[in-house]
Write a structure and sequence with these properties.
The protein has four helices and ten strands; from the N terminus they run αααβββββββαβββ. By secondary structure, it is of the alpha+beta class. The two termini are 19 Å apart.
Length: 204
């Protein structure tokens, strides 16, 4: 897992962010993530890693349920979902402790890229199908050159305006990347690699 110092150094080198913009994901206070945001981010990270595991070996989805979910997708989203790309249905245990939640995860169209956008939650904690929840709010796709010798040090930086912390999709996408991901929420930037962000104060 990338260290926070390494991630911050790479982000600064690539994006020329001022020091004030670097996340201090340690405790509440000015320029730092609150304890609530940290707790929620840790829960989202755990969820994202669940998604990553299920994405590698998707459990079977009931055919009728999948048909209903895809029909809902066609009616609610249609071709407006980041170019109408294909989606992989993924079931994970419900956060309520009973039943399962269904995600429709965007499928990469290339071995050299992975979509950050176009991921949806079809069945949430209440166990009901729909309406779909857009979990990324973007159509960004992260591309890379596998021949780039500096690839492990590269950082793709994105902004997540709706939240105070990265959500499960950021963790999931980060787990699929050969480089790091920096997620900006407000005045904070969360360095992530392999699906994880590191808890600790950033010093530059």
């Amino acid at each position: 897992m990338i260290t926070l110092h390494r991630a911050v150094a790479a982000i600064i080198a690539i994006m020329a962010f001022p020091c004030a913009a670097i996340a201090q994901v340690h405790s509440s206070g000015s320029g730092e993530a609150s304890e609530t945001a940290m707790e929620d981010a840790l829960a989202a990270q755990a969820r994202g890693l669940q998604l990553a595991e299920a994405y590698r070996s998707p459990p079977p989805v009931d055919a009728a349920l999948l048909a209903d979910a895809l029909d809902l997708f066609a009616r609610q989203v249609g071709d407006s979902s980041c170019g109408g790309t294909a989606h992989t249905p993924v079931l994970v245990p419900a956060r309520s402790g009973a039943g399962q939640e269904l995600y429709l995860l965007n499928t990469p169209g290339s071995a050299r890229s992975f979509p950050l956008g176009g991921h949806y939650l079809a069945i949430g904690a209440d166990g009901e199908l729909g309406p779909l929840t857009d979990l990324s709010g973007t159509c960004e796709s992260i591309a890379w050159d596998p021949e780039d010798p500096q690839l492990p040090m590269r950082v793709y930086v994105t902004t997540y305006a709706p939240g105070s912390h990265p959500n499960e999709i950021h963790s999931f996408v980060s787990s699929q990347l050969p480089m790091s991901l920096g997620v900006i929420t407000g005045e904070l930037i969360w360095p992530m690699a392999g699906g994880y962000f590191e808890i600790g104060r950033a010093h530059v």
